[in-house]
Amino acid sequence: MAQTQSLSYTLVITGAPYASQAPQTALGFASALVQAGHRIDRIFLYGDGVHLASALSCAPSDEINWTQAWSGFLSENGIPAIVCVASALRRGVLDETEQKRYGKMASNLVSPFEIAGLGEWIDSLKRSSRTLYFNAAD
Amino acid sequence: MKTLIIVDKPPYGDWSGREALDMAFSLAAFDQPVSLLFVGGGVNWLRSGQNAENIKQKTVTRQLGAAAVFGIEEFLVDSEGLSAYGMAADALSADVICVEPGPDLYQQYQHIVCL
Amino acid sequence: MPLTQTGTELMPVLHVLNKSPNHPRFGYCLAALADNDALILIENAVFGLGSANRFRCRVYALQDDVKARGLPSPSAGEAIELVDLPGWVTLTATYSRIVHW
Which residue of B has its CA nearest to A121? Predict the structure, then answer.
């Protein structure tokens, strides 16, 4: 078993919070990865997964706000997090640059997420020891 | 680094196939070898005679046509899926290789993506 | 050990399945399994614990998802191992090839 060997991971999340279990499962897995001493190269949100990076999501007080939970985890551990630009623009997840470019009334990208293209995902395929996907179930 | 992108849902009814295709196009744009595998309902991407004008979407046939130009290496199609949807391999909108998906096929790819 | 047509051994794969047994993806995953692969059932796929005899390889299931859905733990006779999150992490470190269905 490779338990003692430290590996690098990229986690791709394509399932949306409150529509799928994907962000929860991924956060549990990511915490366990960090505890096991592995490195997370980046989190990549794709497709419906980009909703996780919307700072405007408000969970009822007795439910976990998955955006805040993820944002906190990423900041505490200094993990880079990317939101795919093509998926994000279509679904209304914008940073200030995109807000200005498209003349929209507000931006809503939660930190530390940044908007970038699929090139970041390809970089992960090349560089990370493992690239894992967290898709919506059914 | 050879990647296989699996499309298993029909076009138009949801967006996942388009997003899978975007991944394939990106890989090709970065000169990474990539193949597409259409299984189950995904074989309907290859049906000839599609026209999505009235449902206000882009007909996917044209996008698939661009795939070869942009360097997507091959279109693989699950023979069982073809027969399930009453489609013949020689009457599709693109040149395909018929396969029976299993361990031997998947083994040829370093990365497999099924959104 | 399964052999490819060229006679080389297949590299073992960890399959991660999160779809219910009646989802087409469940079947595609089953068709992709080789004898020396491993399969981990997570999220809705744990409903497939009962049909474990359909799997031809080692099978794990994510304990938290089994418990959440009120499913009985597999008995010792069934060749299914429950794992926690650190256990899943270990599996992903052990297998260099991973496919998510």
Answer: B23
> Within a 10 A sphere around the Cβ of A82, how many other Cβ atoms?
25
Q: Is B112 on the interface with A (CB under 8 A)?
A: no
Token reading at B110: 């370093």
What are the tens digits of pLDDT across the range A98-131? 999 999 999 999 999 999 999 999 999 999 999 9
Q: What is the architecture of the domain spanning B3-113?
A: 3-Layer(aba) Sandwich (3.40)
Q: What are the pLDDT digits (tens) for B5-42?
A: 999 999 999 999 999 999 999 999 999 999 999 999 99
d(C-alpha B21, C-alpha B7), whole Å: 8
- Which residue's structure tokens are 């096929």? B105
To the nearest whole Å, the CA of C35 is away from the closest chain B CA by 10
Give the mutation candidate from C42, C89, C90, C98 for the A interface (greatest A CB count, under 10 A): C89
pLDDT band per the 50, 70, 90 thresholds, residue C66: very high
Asked whether the beta carbons of B40 and B84 are under 8 A apart, the reply is yes
Condensed to tens digits (0 to 9), the pLDDT of residues A87-97 reads 999 999 999 99
Q: Which of B15, B16, B111 sits opposite A125 (nearest CB)?
A: B111
Catalytic residues of A: 84
**Owning domain of residue A92:** 8-134
Domains along the sequence of chain C with CATH: 13-100 (3.40.1260.10)
Domain extent listing, chain B: 3-113
Rounded to 5°, angle at Cα A60 from A15 and A72: 60
C56 and C83 in contact (C-beta within 8 Å)? no
CATH code where residue A66 lies: 3.40.1260.10
- Those of residues 6-65 in B touching chain C at CB distance below 8 A are 6, 8, 39-41
What global pTM score does this model have?
0.95
Three-state DSSP state, A132:
strand
ipTM: 0.95
